[in-house]
Design brief:
mainly alpha
Length: 78
């Protein structure tokens, strides 16, 4: 199980959030990761390569984004 908290500032971290984490996870082991939300998303080289390969495919083999998501859900249970 996981929970994500999105805060607009580090100043929003309060004892209420810590109490909520303690209540939710009780005595289970947990990992807390803090990362800066840059809001600027960049594609990795691998992602760019996959997209470049897709651009080389024939148009008749394209599937819609909806069909693509359905296939991913079916295959990986997303």
């Amino acid at each position: 199980m996981y929970t994500t908290y999105h805060l607009t500032s580090a100043q929003e971290v309060s004892s209420d959030i810590l109490d909520a984490i303690k209540t939710t996870f009780k005595s289970k082991p947990i990992t807390i990761i803090v990362e800066e939300d840059e809001g600027d998303y960049e594609l990795s080289s691998e992602m760019k390569n996959v997209l470049d390969e897709r651009l080389k495919e024939e148009v008749k083999t394209y599937i819609s984004s909806e069909d693509s998501i359905k296939q991913l859900n079916k295959k990986y249970g997303l």
